[in-house]
Amino acid sequence: MLTLTGLCTLVAAGTLVFILGYLFVNGGRSLTLDFFTNLPAPVGESGGGMANAIVGSAKLLLVASLIGVPIGFLGGVYLAEYGGTAFSFFVRYTTDLLNGVPSIVIGIFAYTMIVVPNHHFSTWAGGAALGVMMIPIAIRSSEEFLRAVPLNLREGAMALGASKAQSIWTVIIPAAKNGILTGIMLNLARVAGETAPLLFTAFSNRYWSPGWGEPTASLPVMIFTYAISPYKDWHRQAWAAGFVLLMLVLMVNIFARLALSRKGHVTR
Amino acid sequence: MSSTHSPLRGLSLEAKAPPGGTPSGDTAPFVAKLSAVDLNFFYGSFQALHGITMEVFENKVTAFIGPSGCGKSTFLRTLNRMNETVRGSRVEGRILLDGEDIQEADVTDVRRRVGMVFQRSNPFPKSIFENVAYGPRINGLARSRVDLLDKVEQSLRRAALWDEVKDKLNQSAYSLSGGQQQRLCIARALAVDPEVLLLDEPCSALDPIATAKIEDLIFQLKDSCTIVIVTHNMQQAARVADYTGFFLLGELIEFDETSTIFKLPAKKQTEDYVTGRFG
Amino acid sequence: MSAPSIFGARSVGALARFWARLRRGDEIAFLLTLACATTVLLITGLLVFELYQNSALSREKSGWSFLTSSTWDPVAERFGALPFIYGTVVTSALALVLGVPLGVGAAIFLAELASARISNALTFLIELLAAVPSVIFGLLGIFILVPMLRSAEPTLRALLGWMPLFQGPFYGVSLLAAGVVLAIMILPFIISISREVILAVPGDQREAALALGATRWETTWDIVIPNAKKGITGSIFLALARSLGETMAVTMVIGNDPKIKASLFAPGYSIAAVIANEFTEATGDVYPAALIELALVLFGLTIVINALARVLVAGTNAKGTA
User: Fold this and answer.
1) A57: three-class secondary structure by DSSP
2) Cα(B235)–Cα(B238) distance, rounded to whole angstroms?
3) Are residues B62 and B196 in contact, defined by beta-carbon separation less than 8 angstroms?
4) What's the pTM?
């Protein structure tokens, strides 16, 4: 039986190694300089790149952070510093439920809220969908890091005549800063790979998307459309895009998790 | 302000009015800096303090001793309203600072005027300089950068730490040793010019050498501020304090000049405790 | 008492005035953070409202038959969700059948048997698996898993072909492929949460069993696992909620065919997949409303299961760390 559980572990860990290895080989091989600099080639022609999707993803993440980070962070401050009431318990529970809502449902929500009144797909709508997805995790990770700040630092600030707001903003938040920032990075890495909420909010675009009010390409949606297409060259590009996306996500995760475990700030 | 009349005169007093001659022989009038009047304190339904009435005299060192859980730290923490931060806590009775009820004053002003140093040193995760500059900054006490620098230096000097840290003010406060960190916390508390300094077992986590430095410091500080210290170490109380109060089970059993408490206590419980016969 | 004469009036300068304002602004800081916390309630409320409101047309037209009819014919405006519900449930069930033994087994190994060093390193690796975007699982599903299953088909048929589950033609994209991809995707959740709840079982329980002469495995199976059962069940529910709502990876390998077939070899369709595929092309009024009603169904399903999972996991942690 013992060996069997070891085998389970091996299979699970082996899967990741296999995924990484396969993407590394296949994706790395498919990657060209054009991928980063060129627009997608017209349908049927080979070559081209995904420059517009890379920029599109960056713009979507910017909008998402503008929505998700402040609301999530300040909400987390509320739960950590003013919590303990029935109301904050309710907020925390709802936050967990919102976190469990399938991303495609968030996509529908952003569609009915933003795309329908505006009559077209846009970076705003896609970014908003991703931003809503960021909120619950930003709240809970900020709360956790703020709670980890020792009580005696709070007392130290208050004993010097700091008001509650002053002690929060000048001592507690700075003390939790690294953890909170790392949490936000992890959060961004997670939504960077989200595809479903973008399908009918940001939609897609084979050209540059000027400004913020037009449909835009993004890396995950490009991977999806290229992977299910019938063209060999598009498959190659889907691998390349998958490689770039996965490397980005894993890099952030590895650095963030190492930083957190070294700090010893969190127990999890 | 500075009324020479204690608001407690005429009330039933645990503390005796100070005798004509003081231990150090100076003739300045005794002024009650802080007074507690019939103070009760509750954590939820648990009553931690029972009817404490006493006075802390200006520019003197007052020590509270007693077995752990006797309420001495709780009492200390009511003197700058730190206990309010505990959920479900409640205060009855009055605490007067220069004759004014601190419960009715702005809490941040109370805490600025009545500074506190904790059992475990708690420097902020900032530089040494920023730690000391914190209080003046948030209270808006420094008029300029130069003024702030000056305040930081003065405070570090008063805490006898300046010579050790003057070349590394920008290093993290965590780079200091335990004793230095505690003195940094004292410097931080001094930087806002408190009139009273509350020390909650400040040496309990320190080695004897670091403890001796802090005790020296207490002697030097009492010229400029009133000091209240909670200690579990009777010798320490005997060494540093002018007045000593003995707490037991949330009550102030006896309060008098330190020499009286240790040599001629009026109460049996006090005698048992100071002679080590206490169970 | 003339409080103002002594308290206050000490601070000077612009900075002081600013801080004094901010100190009074304790209220502002409180209200600002409160507003942000309330936003969560607002968003969740709005989400439910929008889904309900925008699916009104479909609910009026189909009524309860929406959930029981298996005909999905947008041209004739007949919408029955049963094939999608079936596909969603079957693929998630398959994912649990494959993923739970593997995940719990790995969790036991990591928590009870492996040295701390190996356990931490492997857990780190497995948790990275949770960070891999679902579209990448889909990509790997299409180009690796589906061909692999195709070549494994004769073996599967020979071994399991006597069951109706493994009969009929096989094209690769299928309920089976979707279930396997989902199983891989939920593994890290089951492993990391189960490992944590197993680690939270108090050490004296183990020592008591070992002292009675139980072997290591007996101790684990008879003492530790029953103690951690609630938390492990919670992790399985969390994994289930995730697999029910998983969109991209499933969409790419399930075959997208709204039929109810008994065989896992047959292509199928899931709720999330049909929304992803058809929403942007849905014309008219009722068709999009029907898809939004599907989203409402999916939302309800995952909310219920998530809520159950949270209760179970929270219960164990509170007990374990107390």
Assistant:
1) helix
2) 5
3) no
4) 0.86
Phi, psi of C167 (to 5 degrees): -125, 170
8 Å CB contact of B140 and C11: yes
CB of C292 within 8 A of CB of C58? Answer: yes
pLDDT tens by residue, chain A, 268 residues? 778 888 888 888 888 788 888 888 888 888 888 889 888 888 777 788 899 999 999 999 999 999 999 999 999 999 999 988 899 999 999 999 999 999 999 999 999 999 999 988 999 999 999 999 999 999 999 999 999 999 899 999 999 988 888 899 999 999 999 999 999 999 999 999 999 999 999 988 888 988 888 999 999 999 999 999 988 889 999 999 999 999 999 999 999 988 887 654 433 3
Number of Cβ atoms within 10 Å of the Cβ of B163: 9
For B255-264, the pLDDT digits (tens) are 999 999 999 9
How far apart (Å, rounded) are the C-alpha atoms in residues B180 and B163?
11
C127 — phi, psi (to 5°)? -70, -25
State the average pLDDT for chain B.
86
- Torsion-angle region of A12 (φ positive above 0: left; ψ -120 to 50: alpha; else: beta): alpha
Q: Is B259 on the interface with A (CB under 8 A)?
A: no
With tokens 């408190």, the residue in question is: B194
Distance CA A72, CA A180 (A): 11
- How many Å lie between the alpha carbon of A187 and the closest alpha carbon of chain B? 25
Cβ of residue C9 closer than 8 Å to a chain B Cβ: no
Token look-up 């009715």 returns B104
Please answer whether residues B30 and B9 qualify as being in contact, where contact means their C-beta atoms are separated by less than 8 angstroms.
no
C-alpha distance from residue A157 to each of B187, B204, B205 (Å): 14, 21, 21
Contact C7 B100 (CB under 8 A): yes
Interchain proximity C114–A224, CB inside 8 Å: no
Of B106, B109, B140, Cβ closest to residue C16: B140
**Are residues C19 and B138, on separate chains, in Cβ contact within 8 Å?**
yes
Tens of pLDDT, residue by residue over C91-138, are 999 999 999 999 999 999 999 888 888 888 888 888 888 899 999 999
Residues, chain C:
322
Whether B188 and A156 lie within 8 Å, measured CB to CB:
yes
Hey, of B81, B101, B137, B139, which one would you mutate to test binding to chain C, going by the most C CBs within 10 A of its CB?
B139
Of C7, C13, C15, nearest to B109 by CB-CB distance is C7
User: Which site among B108, B112, B126, B190 would you substitute to test the A interface, given the most A Cβ atoms closer than 10 Å to its Cβ?
Assistant: B108
Enumerate residues 6+ apart whose C-beta is below 8 A from B77.
B83, B116, B198, B200
C43 with A75: Cβ contact below 8 A: no
- State which H helix or E strand residue C234 sits in: helix C225-245
Q: Please tell me which of the candidates B87, B118, B125 has its beta carbon nearest to residue A174.
A: B125
Answer for the pair A92, A85: CB distance below 8 angstroms, yes or no: no
Question: Going along chain C, which residue ranges are E strands?
Answer: 72-73, 78-79
ipTM: 0.91
Query: CB of B50 within 8 A of CB of B10?
Result: no
The answer to whether residues B186 and B114 touch, using CB atoms and an 8 Å cutoff, is no
How far apart (Å, rounded) are the C-alpha atoms in residues C294 and C314? 30
Q: Which of B105, B140, B141 sits opposite C7 (nearest CB)?
A: B105
b/e C253-276 (16+ beta carbons within 10 angstroms → b): bbbbbbebbebbbbbbbbbbbbbb
Question: Quick one: which of B218, B267, B209 has its CA closest to B14?
Answer: B267
The per-residue pLDDT for range B146-157, each reduced to its tens digit, is 999 999 999 999
pLDDT band at B278 (very low <50, low <70, confident <90, very high): low
C50 touches chain A (CB under 8 A): yes
The minimum CA-CA distance between B103 and chain C, rounded to whole Å, is 11
Q: Is the pLDDT score of C11 beyond 80?
A: no
